Amino acid sequence: MTDLSAGDGSAPARARPRAGGLAVLAALGAVLGLLVVIGLALRRPATGPEIGQPAPDFSLVTFDGEPLALGAQRGKVVVVNFWASWCQPCAAEAADLEAIWREFEGRGVVFVGVNYVDTRPAALAYLEAHAITYPNAPDRGDRVARAYRLTGVPETVVVDAEGRVVGLPGPDGVPVAKVAAPIVAGSPLGPDELRGLLDRLVADAG
Amino acid sequence: MSAARPAGRSPASAAFLGLALALAAALAGGRPAAAQAPSPGTPDTRAEAIARELNCPVCQGYDLLECPLEVCAQMRDVIRQRLAAGEDPEAIKAAFVADYGPQVLNAPPPRGFFLLAWLLPIVALAIGGVFALTFLARARPVGPALAESAAPSADPATAERLEELLSARDDR
Fold this sequence. Notes:
Number of strands of chain B: 0
Order of helices and strands of chain B: HHHHHHH
Number of strands of chain A: 6
CATH class of the domain at 37-107 in chain B: Mainly Alpha
Largest interface: A-B, 23 and 23 residues
Distance between the termini of chain B: 42 Å
Helix content of chain B: over 70%
Mean pLDDT of chain B: 76
Structural class of chain A: alpha/beta
CATH architecture of the largest domain in chain A: 3-Layer(aba) Sandwich
Shape of chain A: elongated
Strand order of the largest sheet of chain A: 5-4-3-6
Order of helices and strands of chain A: HEEEHEHEHEH
Number of helices of chain A: 5
Radius of gyration of chain B: 31 Å
CATH superfamily of the domain at 37-107 in chain B: Cytochrome C biogenesis protein
Oligomer: heterodimer
CATH class of the largest domain in chain A: Alpha Beta
CATH superfamily of the largest domain in chain A: Glutaredoxin
Low-confidence stretches of chain B: 1-11, 25-39
Number of helices of chain B: 7
Strand content of chain B: under 5%
Helix content of chain A: 40-55%
């Protein structure tokens, strides 16, 4: 009789830990699956622009409604400048950028202004105030800024005729893929340094 | 013992139910406050309600309503202008997502990948609740079961003998 009751009692007792183990396994599986899903969803280009590597491509629509794709500029040297109407250092470099653009306009150089986090009326007022004539486009959905790992404005990237990122003078004399400072006299990449660089790149391309 | 089990389990499930109800109340309490504001009210309060549901796209942790940046003031103006033009709050928010990316929304939209952010806490709570209930259901019978099984094992004769030995030891 004691045997019988012991048998009755131990059977569910033995089955329960097995069910518990299955539940723990299922929970672990669910957590792992979730991590994989989150990892895949968050996967994005691990790096921004890198010297000598193809520049991250983008296609935008300018404030005038014209399509503007980086990939379509192959064969030309492209200066990509990120700016915003609320950014004061951007205003400091605006006149020089426009002047350099006019000097190089007919020599296989393209300037592209990418407008970062802004409102259309304020951006248009800025372009008018600084008399900027090269193509400018809003970065809708913040996509180009993310592809270029923007850390703020202004930032400037130069792309050679083969579509590769050009090394620019950095603060410690080390070349950088993008300059995170305004292009003004006294900066590692000032207006004169940019002119010299564009001269060299145009010569290389020709 | 079998009669004791349902009675023993009910405090645990009552506690869990209470927790779930409190959570549901908290969730339900939070939502109408956000959903209510846009419909009636002056244009300014409607614009503020929309701005409160959006983030500053530049600084972390600021909503569009409280952000002191100039660009956020401009964005609040855009909201007012679009409302004045008769645009629907949802359409305005959609336009902001198109311009500044989904991160401009304070709360992720309950669609696609972002649905996980809404569902996971509920799933985690449910799984945790099941584990807690299983643990409580298993832990509870141990106390009474031990008491019941321990008591009959000491028959009166043994108990008497034990008592004798113990008192003899105490006297020494």
